[in-house]
Write a structure and sequence with these properties.
Elements (H helix, E strand, L loop, with lengths): L7 E5 L4 H12 L3 E6 L2 H11 L3 E5 L5 H15 L4 E4 L15 H29 L2 E6 L12 H22 L3 E8 L6 H5 L4 H5 L2 H12 L11 H12 L10 E4 L9 H15 L1
Parallel strand pairs: 1-2, 1-4, 2-3, 4-5, 5-6, 6-7
The protein binds NADP nicotinamide-adenine-dinucleotide phosphate.
Length: 279
């Protein structure tokens, strides 16, 4: 018996990283899962590895017709849609605002905000007709504080958090819930992609990212461990299941406490400087 027995889910951006982990978690909990992404071979392999109740559908989240067809295909295969995870994403760009290219900005917004809009719109029309369903959008810790990521990515993730509230209010009268999750740094291929590696090579760099990031977390996360794809999948699972049936319009940080405040030892060190100055 799984907590998602009988449910039907779509996960966008499921060809790697966090999305692949969410799809595997949902499948292990009994859901039928439609994995989506642009990489056909990678996606079909991941669906085949999961086995029965898993299929891959190629879809680019920036193309509305493809997202609409993705939802229709999930319903055609499995009869309904209970869970939509709008997870697909690309890296940001660390260019200063005075040099920022408008096309680059628009591309990032198209994936992160446009993709979430299309996913919510088309899952929402199916779920509203069913009068049930739950949508989880992938935001980020950097959507709540500046200076940690590119301004395009950070702005897009802030928009996802507020879009989630507005869509939750909109779809609430149909019994459809919409929430978001905001992880801090999760070692995945997204950083390698941001550094210019191709997708396959980037997916192999997660361990290196973990090694590089772990010593830095002591300055920012009260619990200074790198967030894992499994941590994010567990949080998304909670929003996806019926136990959270009255939770909507919320954003959940998965960040070792970094969005709540800084580690105590950082404040202690600062107070020591003041004490010494006043002594
Ligand atoms: N890693 C972190 O530190 C972190 C922290 C907070 C939030 N996030 C967010 O988590 C999500 C997943 O990122 P990740 O870290 O798991 O990185 P990842 O391994 O690079 O995964 C990104 C996924 O999005 C898909 N994708 C990208 N553009 C797409 C498009 N136009 N249409 C459809 N699919 C697209 C990719 O698949 P294809 O290449 O096959 O299309 C891939 O499956 C993103 O929204 C990211 O912003 C990540």
């Amino acid at each position: 018996m799984g907590i998602l027995d009988g449910k039907v889910a779509i996960v966008t951006g499921a060809t790697s990283g966090i999305g692949a982990a969410i799809a595997a978690k949902f499948h292990a909990e009994g859901a039928s899962v439609v994995l989506a992404g642009r990489r056909l071979e990678e996606g079909e392999k991941r669906a085949a590895d999961l086995g029965e109740r898993a299929v891959f559908v190629k879809a680019d989240v920036t193309v509305e017709a493809e997202v609409s067809a993705l939802v229709d295909e999930a319903v055609r295969r499995f009869g309904r849609l209970d869970i939509m995870v709008n997870n697909a994403g690309t890296p940001g760009n660390m260019t200063p605002v005075v040099d920022f290219d408008a096309d680059v900005f628009a591309r990032t917004m198209a994936v992160h905000v446009g993709g979430v809009l299309f996913g919510t719109k088309h899952a929402g029309r199916q779920m509203a007709a069913q009068r049930s369903g739950t949508i989880v959008n992938m935001a980020s810790r950097v959507g709540k504080a500046a200076g940690y990521s590119g301004l395009d990515y950070s702005t897009a993730k802030a928009a996802v958090i507020h879009f989630t509230r507005t869509a939750a209010v909109d779809l609430g009268e149909y019994g459809v819930r919409v929430n978001s999750v905001s992880p801090d740094v999760v070692p995945t291929g997204i950083f390698g992609k941001g550094a210019g590696l191709d997708a396959a090579a980037a997916d192999d760099t997660a361990a290196k990212v973990r090694e590089a990031i772990t010593p830095l977390l002591a300055k920012s996360q009260p619990i200074a461990e790198a967030v894992t794809v499994e941590d994010v999948a567990q949080a998304v699972l909670w929003f996806a299941q019926d136990g959270s049936r009255l939770v909507t319009g919320q954003d959940l940080g998965i960040d070792g406490g970094s969005s709540a405040g800084r580690p105590m030892h950082v404040g202690r060190a600062e107070r020591a400087v003041f004490r010494d100055a006043l002594a």
